[in-house]
User: Fold this.
Amino acid sequence: MADENYYHYLEAELSLWLLEVKKSPSIFGRLSHGIQGKINSWIPEKIHKAISIAIENMVKAVLVGSDWVKPKPEESLSLMQRELQIRNRIKWYRNTASVEGGLTGAGGILLGLADFPAFLTIKMKMLFDIAALYGYDAKSYQERLFLLYVFQLSFSSQKRRNELIGLIENWEVYQKDLPKSFSEFDWKTFQLDYRDYIDLAKLAQLIPVIGAPVGAIANYKLTDHLGRYAMNCYRLRWQSKI
Assistant:
């Protein structure tokens, strides 16, 4: 009975999340995205390429780190038991990211810049743990590619989310036509989506005095946001197996 009630709760929460992800872009969102696109067009292509390569290398370093892959949980665990563990892991990573953001934010520009790779690693590592707790083998290329798309869905414009959610909902169908290797993945779009999403939240972290609290709050909220999106993405896959 408890499991049945939990499934009803899960379906309601998943439905609300899908409404959020699939809503039409707001006027403010379209305006912000247009301004960011214009600014990006002013940046020389070689700069975009350098940033893309840097982000690609950082993400790849995490994705190929097989030592970070947690063993899958007991098959006997119910979905409710799995999600209880997942919520605890998200809470742990959320608090870790908040502390890291506060420390680097207190150091001004230089330490604020160091937050970028550290925070990226924390978020990707959390995705590995979530995948494992849902019972998916994060050692496989397909599952790691799924993590990339979950990450991209979480940190992108509303317009882009509308484009990506169909892929997540129909992963078993679309995965056959996706990039055959990480080198074929669209890293430029990935880094632009990510930068455009977090720029406003993270720029103030570089300002002395206010950088510490801003960094702590921004990292806390962004990590929690990613955790919620990841849970719902895996719920969609779990639901398709029922």
Summary: The radius of gyration is 18 Å. The longest helix spans residues 211-241.
